Amino acid sequence: MRFLPVTHNALLVELADLDQTLALLASLQRTPLAGVQELVPAARTILVSYRPWATSAAALVQQIAQRDLSQRAERSSTLVEIPVHYNGEDLAEVAQILGITPAEVVQRHTGSEYTVAFTGFAPGFAYLSGGHPSLNVPRRSTPRTRLPAGSVGLAGTFSGVYPQASPGGWQIIGTTPVAMWDITRTQPALLQPGYRVRFVDIATKNIAGSAYLEGATGQKDLKPSGRTQHHLAAGQTALQVRATGLLTVFQDLGRHGQAGQGVSASGAMDQAALKAANRLVGNASHLAALETVGGGLQLRSVGDNAVAVTGADAVLTLTTADGQRWPV
Fold it and tell me: What is the pLDDT of residues 94-135, one digit of tens each?
């Protein structure tokens, strides 16, 4: 076990293998350490984020080093079956690497049960361990720039499903119609750490029913339809964005504590300024606001509005409806 500093409120624990990582993770989840905010596991590491006013890196190192790694993590009773069309463009190459036929690759992939070891990389992406011991293939030497959502792949001893279209270097052996990530579900990620997973060959099983496709049918293909015109009712006010400048985005305080699910915290770069701006106009401090960088933002007030500008120093100019301009 090795400890590496990351930031003023995070340290990285390096372990010998996946079994040790899962054993330590289970121990830290079973008996949490005071001051720890979040645990983000990977194949041989655990990122430990903590509140520096509640504990210290030295204290955490001392406590974590005493944990027993001999006890294996318990598997969940939840079994998720994932139907797969085994038509992946790397299926033949994987078979060649392993010295077997494509049909044997499918048989081995569907014939063993996997366990969700950890999640990350992207929201809903689960690293599945276990399976047939022979299914150990290298990543592609040249990753693809875009893989479609639902791509089922192999990399090393892991299997996984890409939850959305993204670049990727795994060996793709098939596709599934089931959504791995759907924010309309109570639990957006279909696969959670510890879940058991079994892949099912759609070609050999009569599983085209709605139970398997429910996750996929909930997805919507959202396409831009041009500029939307919003009409205000009498007495309503609004701020219209006339120009965004170099970079202007809507930001709130972020989604902290979800890194283990592949959801980055994001949020405003200057969260103190965001809270101050909200308070100045009478909003709750966590609400979203416009965050702009580099200047160039232009807003038009429709009706009377209260606007607060906080954060870095900036040149502000007010232009009236009749064209008069003056600095604020």
Answer: 999 999 999 999 999 999 999 998 887 788 899 999 999 999
| The token pair that represents 73 in the structure block | 């993590």
- Number of neighbours of residue 37 by Cβ within 10 angstroms: 13
Q: Closest by alpha carbon to 110, among 91, 131, 128?
A: 131
| CA-wise closest residue to 261 among 325, 185, 173 | 185
pLDDT, residue 263, reads: 64
Record the tokens describing residue 60, joined without a space.
């955490």
Quick one: residue 185, left, alpha or beta (phi over 0 = left, psi -120 to 50 = alpha)?
Answer: beta
The pLDDT score that the predictor gives to residue 257 is 61
- Please give the mean pLDDT across all residues of the chain: 86
Amino acid of residue 117: A
**Mean pLDDT score, 153-182:** 94
Helices (H), 182-254: 210-217
Q: What is the pLDDT of residue 29?
A: 86
Residue by residue, DSSP assigns 63-121 as HHHTS---SPPPPPS-EEEEEEB---TTHHHHHHHHTS-HHHHHHHHHSS-EEEEEE-S
Is residue 315 classed as helix, strand or coil in its secondary structure? coil
Q: What is the pLDDT of residues 290-303, one digit of tens each?
A: 999 888 899 998 88
Query: How far apart are the C-alpha atoms of 293 and 326, rounded to whole Å?
Result: 22
What is the phi-psi region of residue 35: left when phi exceeds 0, alpha when psi lies from -120 to 50, beta otherwise?
left
**Predicted model pTM:** 0.67
Which tokens in the block code for residue 309? 């500008």
CA dihedral of residues 173, 99, 104, 80 (deg, nearest 10): -50
Residue 311 tokens read as 């954060």
DSSP lists the bridge partners of residue 239 as 301
